[in-house]
Automatic annotation (TrEMBL), chain A:
Keyword terms of this UniProt record: FAD, Flavoprotein, Oxidoreductase
Protein name according to UniProt: Acyl-CoA dehydrogenase FadE17
Coiled coil start-end: none
Entry's Gene Ontology cellular component terms: plasma membrane
Obligatory cofactor(s): FAD
Organism, as annotated: Palleronia abyssalis
Domain Acyl-CoA dehydrogenase/oxidase C-terminal: 231-393
Name of the top EC class for this enzyme: oxidoreductase
SUPFAM superfamilies assigned to the protein according to its UniProt record, in alphabetical order: Acyl-CoA dehydrogenase C-terminal domain-like (SSF47203), Acyl-CoA dehydrogenase NM domain-like (SSF56645)
From TrEMBL, chain B:
The EC number(s) this enzyme carries: 1.3.8.10
Family annotation (Gene3D superfamilies): Acyl-CoA dehydrogenase/oxidase, N-terminal domain (1.10.540.10), Butyryl-CoA Dehydrogenase, subunit A, domain 2 (2.40.110.10), Butyryl-CoA Dehydrogenase, subunit A, domain 3 (1.20.140.10)
Residue span, Acyl-CoA dehydrogenase/oxidase N-terminal domain: 6-105
Matching InterPro entries: Acyl-CoA_Oxase/DH_mid-dom (IPR006091), Acyl-CoA_Oxase/DH_mid-dom_sf (IPR046373), AcylCo_DH-like_C (IPR036250), AcylCo_DH/oxidase_C (IPR009075), AcylCoA_DH/ox_N (IPR013786), AcylCoA_DH/ox_N_sf (IPR037069), AcylCoA_DH/oxidase_NM_dom_sf (IPR009100)
Species: Palleronia abyssalis
SUPFAM superfamilies in UniProt: Acyl-CoA dehydrogenase C-terminal domain-like (SSF47203), Acyl-CoA dehydrogenase NM domain-like (SSF56645)
Domain Acyl-CoA oxidase/dehydrogenase middle: 117-204
MF GO annotations: acyl-CoA dehydrogenase activity; flavin adenine dinucleotide binding
The protein, known as: Cyclohex-1-ene-1-carbonyl-CoA dehydrogenase
């Protein structure tokens, strides 16, 4: 047992800090700090900056343009980038599709798609969920029928994050009707510019439109865009779920949220004293900080085990449940810390460069929206109920 | 003991429920299309709902705690954003403290023609009722006010704003407060108004040497605190009743959804993990109802008893609101956080209950201090 970082890891942290000091544009970190909405260009800009050091997909092997990071390096990266208020890396190409292609893709597919993920040519989104297939993903109905050198795709995906920016979508589609419903599913790459695709925004409870419905009507997809074998899609989906739940605990985000909460509680006043000196409020903050300190180590324990080749199963589900609940509780307390100033709903104040001033202190503007929006954390990526089912199955024989 | 409603209150409840179900569109409020509707307001006045908040002596036909409970529970059930709360608070202060000339406005208030607001809370005051820094100094016969008020609900629409200010003492003192009845458009009053999460509008108010005539003073200068605290208690009763209505509505929506939504070839309610959590929600809502009844039944009790109930009820309802909002969203899945589904508006409105008149933590602390005292 040794909780200290090795020299190599300390050097990496130092290098990373210098890089963030020098290369992270203040315009972007200000937006993140103030909870303002990032544009497509903002995200692309940050990806490109990271890729100058092969840090965009640092955990990818070097042969594919990554840096071959180990679990601790990934952890340090997360910790430092969130501390610096860097935009988060979009997961769809880098955390999801990339690893799938490395494991199941043909050589041609890898050579074609992987560099385009890293150099920003393609923006991917994830087309799994459908109106009738949420937790019960295998109930999906979108069909892909073979017609010569093409699949013809018909159906509807929903909750597709940032599909409005994406030019490609990876989809689970139904290619077989026989046997168990898990058996007839395939993994297909689709160009969003293809005729027959329509994207419609879904407005969320915080007023933003980060998710969409994606409709497919007779969309023709070349067969070479099939990943793996036909009807092997469920295996691929499961691989993604158990092997690529990176950053699932969100320790970096939680640490940042805790700092922000403490700062706000130091600025707000109750009974003429800083709120953070109120024993009840201070105890609530402390309770979350104690949880987070343990969470950070739980996270490192799981990623270390994973690095030694033990596929995290139930453990990554534990991280997901605990990590999301801690973040949501931090959002809840931050909203409370702002008192009455959590009430104004001035959506424009969340757009950077808008000349609409926030009402009250600037830190209060995003807190309610963030609280509501982050209810998603326990819903997507496998809901917390689904995670508990996995834990109960794997650990308890339920 | 009798926990049934009188016949009049039963009729009021039925009529109001039907009228609001017909008029309030939660989706439109959630999209921000309407802050609130004058048509609904007129219907409220016509049905005697505004009058139900005032005693017969003041020209109304109610005003008791259980009148507030019936009215505001229905407002909550519908998610109605109409500024009835502001009429209750500011109108109540006028009724309690006003001169005959000032009370003459109440007819128009009850008839729905005059809008009111209460500008009390200030930046940095959070939920402390006595923390007023706005200054009022005497100037010949009249008064001059300088200071800022924050998140004044309905401030932009109000024809009259009841403004609190300090005539003596320090920011946190209970003594030395006064109330003023300020007509819309008074010179020296600067106002920025904006939408509130969950519906309705709020305003930031800045007063810079705002001159008021002598007859703007409401009640006695320097001794307004007890009336403010009483008005606050009535507001908390109304607000927790509204929260109760919102919880009932959210619970119904969620229970229906769990029956309708199928995953893994079963309605979600058939999964015991969810059914048990829904059962918890039902249990806690019944507790919240009892807490609201406790407060509404003690509004006219002595100050100590009343305030103990204010904090007890507000604490319990605040905690229950969080449970109901978070569990109902979670059990809905993705649809629970979309603006185009009714839950979004109800969840936002219910959550905002915790940002006015003190949240669960604030009242937990206050309750223990009151109990200890
Ligand atoms: C903001 C956001 C972004 C998203 N982005 C994407 C995306 O980019 N791509 C994509 O494909 N999908 C995306 N999703 C979809 C997400 O994966 C689904 O919302 C999730 O799988 C849950 O499905 P559902 O919403 O249909 O809820 P349902 O499956 O209907 O579940 C409703 C509730 O019932 C519970 N439940 C279901 N079955 C059981 C059971 N057997 N036992 C106990 N409880 C159960 C669930 O946990 C949940 O609490 C996103 C969702 C959100 C909210």
């Amino acid at each position: 047992m040794d909780l200290s970082y090795s020299e190599k890891h300390e050097a990496f942290r130092k290098d990373l800090r210098t890089f963030l000091d020098e290369k992270l544009p203040k315009r972007l970190s200000d937006k993140v700090r103030l909870g303002q909405r990032l544009t497509k260009e903002d995200m692309e800009e940050w990806h490109a900056i990271l890729q100058t050091r092969n840090w965009l997909a640092g955990h990818w092997p070097e042969e594919y343009g990554g840096s071959g990071w180990d679990a601790v390096e990934r952890h340090i990266f997360e910790e430092e980038t969130t501390r610096a208020n860097a935009p988060r890396i979009l997961p769809f190409g880098i955390m999801m599709l990339g690893p799938v292609l490395m494991k199941f893709g043909s050589e041609d597919q890898k050579a074609h798609w992987l560099p385009r993920i890293l150099n920003g040519t393609d923006w991917w989104c994830q087309g799994y969920s459908e109106p009738g297939a949420g937790s019960d993903l295998a109930a999906l109905k979108t069909t892909a029928e073979r017609d010569g050198d093409h699949y013809v795709v018909n159906g509807q995906k929903t909750w597709t994050t940032l599909a409005q920016y994406a030019d490609h979508i990876f989809c689970l589609v139904r290619t077989g009707k026989d046997g168990k419903k898990q058996e007839g599913i395939s993994f297909l790459l689709i160009d969003m510019d293809d005729p027959g695709i329509e994207v419609r925004p879904i407005y969320l409870i915080d007023g933003g439109a980060e998710v969409n419905e994606v409709w497919f009507k007779d969309v023709r997809v070349p067969v070479e865009n099939l990943v793996g074998e036909e009807n092997q899609g469920w295996t691929i989906a499961k691989y993604l779920l158990t092997h690529e739940r990176t950053n699932i605990a969100g320790v970096g985000f939680a640490t940042q949220a805790l700092e922000n909460l403490k700062r706000i509680a130091g600025l707000e006043h109750q009974a003429g004293k800083p709120l953070i000196e109120d024993p009840l409020f201070a105890a609530e903050i402390a309770r979350l900080e104690i949880q987070l300190m343990a969470m950070a180590t739980t996270n490192l324990r799981v990623v270390s085990a994973a690095a030694e080749g033990n596929a995290p199963g139930a453990e990554s589900s534990m991280l997901k449940v605990k990590g999301t609940v801690i973040r949501q509780e931090l959002n809840d307390l931050t909203r409370r810390a702002c008192g009455p100033y959590a009430m104004p709903f001035v959506s424009e104040a969340l757009e950077a460069g808008s000349n609409v001033e926030p009402v009250g202190p600037d830190y209060a503007a995003p807190v309610s929206g963030k609280y509501f929006n982050n209810r998603k954390l326990s819903i997507y990526g496998g809901s917390n109920e689904v995670q508990k089912q996995i834990i109960a199955k794997m650990k308890l024989g339920a | 003991m009798d926990f049934t409603l009188t016949e009049e209150r039963q009729m009021l409840q039925d009529g109001l429920r039907r009228m609001l179900a017909d008029k309030v569109d939660p989706k439109a409020v959630a999209r921000g299309d309407t802050a609130w509707s004058t048509e609904t307001w007129e219907a409220l006045a016509e049905m005697g709902v505004i009058g139900a908040l005032f005693s017969e002596d003041d020209g109304g036909f109610g005003g008791a705690g259980f009148d507030l409970m019936v009215v505001f529970e229905e407002m909550g059930r519908a998610g109605a954003p109409e500024p009835l709360m502001e009429t209750l608070i500011a109108g109540g202060l006028i009724a309690e403290l006003g001169s005959d000339a000032q009370k003459a406005h109440l007819d128009a208030v009850i008839g729905g023609a005059v809008q009111l607001a209460f500008a009390h809370s200030e930046p940095g005051a959070r939920f402390d009722l006595e923390r007023v820094a706005t200054e009022a100094r005497q100037d010949g016969d009249g008064w001059i006010l300088t200071g800022r008020k924050s998140v004044v609900a309905n401030g932009g629409e109000a024809d009259y704003i009841v403004v609190s200010a300090r005539v003596s003492g320090n920011t946190g003192d209970r003594d030395g407060l006064a109330l003023f009845l300020v007509p819309k458009g008074t010179e020296g009053l600067d106002l920025r108004d904006y939408p509130l999460t969950g519906g309705g509008r709020g305003a930031e108010i800045a007063m810079e040497d705002m001159r008021l005539p002598a007859d703007a003073l409401l009640g006695e200068a320097g001794h307004a605190f007890p009336a403010i605290e009483r008005a606050n208690a009535r507001a908390v009763a109304a607000q927790t009743a509204e929260a109760l209505g919102l919880m009932e509505r959210i619970k119904d929506l969620t229970a229906d959804y769990l029956q309708q939504r199928t995953q893994f070839d079963k309605p979600l309610i058939k999964f015991q993990a969810l059914a048990f959590r829904m059962a918890d929600v039902l249990i806690e809502i019944e507790q919240a109802r009892s807490a609201v009844i406790n407060l509404c039944g003690h509004l006219d009790a002595d100050r100590e008893t009343r305030e103990l109930h204010v904090s007890a009820t507000k604490q319990l309802v605040g905690e229950t609101a969080k449970l109901v909002v978070e569990e109902s969203i979670q059990m809905h899945g993705g649809i629970g956080i979309t603006q185009e589904y009714d839950l979004a508006h109800f969840a936002r409105r219910l959550t905002m209950v915790e940002h006015r008149f003190g949240d669960a933590l604030f009242h937990l602390g206050r309750f223990s201090r009151l109990r200890m005292a």
